[in-house]
Design goal:
Layout (H helix, E strand, L loop, with lengths): L1 H36 L1 H14 L7 H13 L3 H13 L7 H12 L4 H13 L7 H13 L3 H13 L7 H13 L3 H13 L7 H12 L4 H13 L7 H13 L3 H13 L7 H13 L3 H13 L7 H28 L6
Helix pairs in contact: 2-3, 3-4, 4-5, 5-6, 6-7, 7-8, 8-9, 9-10, 10-11, 11-12, 12-13, 13-14, 14-15, 15-16, 16-17
């Protein structure tokens, strides 16, 4: 009886061992198949890990090595990434020709990022001859594939008439697509269009909505615009303290117009307690960032000892900086006017 039980156990173990070996064989065969047929995917994944430093020590050289292997096997993501590495010089010697080559290889497979990067090259005239029409063509291909930044730049080109015929309806359409994907710059531009009423009915409430979305992503232009709308009561109940709050957010991000606006509020005491020393501090920040109005105000404050110690030389220095900027602006406007004059017969 005991022997029969032992025999059954041995027989069961034999079958179990055979079954286990069979399963191991199937799994091994599958892994070998995947590696042999999808090796480029594995290589691209390894490259991404080295590039990001996720789970391994970040190493751009090793990332480029593995991207190259995957790119040689026509992996479009690897080709696009390799183009970017040659474009920026990360992990490889910077090489413009190779950057364009790999971008084009990936773009031939309609890789969205490669299409977008080619658009950038043609838009900026970097590593290729500048051609705004070609830039728009590549941006459109990327935009059609959902690349938010390509949608934004295509919107900008339609708004400015660069590389395409000026078309504010198309500009709005592409800005909206990018804005709905959460791109702050597109949200800000959309808000600006609604506030100005360019190509659409002026709508301050809609402008506020898009400004707020961008401002919450720390877009200083949008924060400053929100400040202005609260200050003036456009699209919202006038609230000077709320205006100061948004101006300060933008000012702390280094946005010169907001620094000037915050300085003005401290100087006049509108919405916040008057504090001319604080006003001078923000005027100086704006002035150092090139704001001509802030430079003029600093000149006035040093001239009169208003919130700062009286100092004629400092006053003259800031007045001079402001004057130089105004002179440059005036000359630019004269030049533009001359360029717009028609030629005689």
């Amino acid at each position: 009886m005991k022997n029969d039980v032992l025999q059954k156990i041995k027989k069961t173990m034999k079958y179990f061992l055979f079954f286990s070996l069979f399963i191991i064989f199937i799994i091994s065969s599958f892994i070998i198949y995947v590696i042999s047929h999808e090796l480029y995917t594995v290589q691209s994944m390894v490259a991404s890990l080295y590039y990001s430093g996720y789970g391994v020590s970040q190493n751009y050289t090793k990332a480029a090595y593995w991207y190259q292997k995957a790119a040689d096997r026509d992996d479009s993501d690897a080709q696009s990434a390799l183009g970017y590495m040659y474009d920026t010089g990360k992990g490889v010697t910077k090489n413009s020709d190779k950057a364009v080559y790999w971008y084009r290889k990936a773009a031939e497979q309609n890789n969205p990022l490669a299409l977008y990067n080619l658009g950038n090259l043609y838009f900026n005239g970097e590593r290729v001859s500048q051609n705004k029409a070609d830039a728009a063509r590549w941006y459109r291909k990327a935009a059609d594939r959902g690349v938010a930044k390509a949608q934004y730049y295509l919107g900008y080109m339609y708004q400015s008439g660069e590389g395409v015929a000026l078309n504010l309806v198309e500009a709005m359409r592409w800005y909206r697509k990018a804005a709905e994907q959460g791109l702050a710059d597109a949200q800000y531009n959309l808000g600006s269009i609604y506030q100005a009423g360019e190509g659409v009915a002026k709508n301050n409430a809609e402008a506020m909505r898009w400004y707020l979305k961008a401002a919450e992503q720390k877009c200083p232009e949008a924060q400053n615009s929100l400040g202005n709308m609260y200050f003036n009561g456009e699209g919202v109940t006038q609230n000077r303290s709320e205006a100061a709050r948004w101006f300060k957010k933008a000012a702390e991000l280094g946005f010169a117009s907001a620094q000037y606006n915050l300085g003005d509020m401290y100087y006049s005491g509108e919405g916040i307690p008057q504090n001319k020393k604080e006003a001078a501090l923000w005027y100086r920040k704006a002035a150092e960032n090139g704001d001509a109005d802030a430079q003029s105000m600093l000149g006035y404050m040093f001239e009169n000892g208003d919130g700062v110690h009286q100092d004629d030389s400092e006053s003259a220095r800031w007045y001079s900086k402001a004057a130089q900027q105004h002179e440059t602006t005036d000359q630019s406007q004269i030049k533009d006017s001359d360029n717009n004059e028609g030629e005689g017969e």
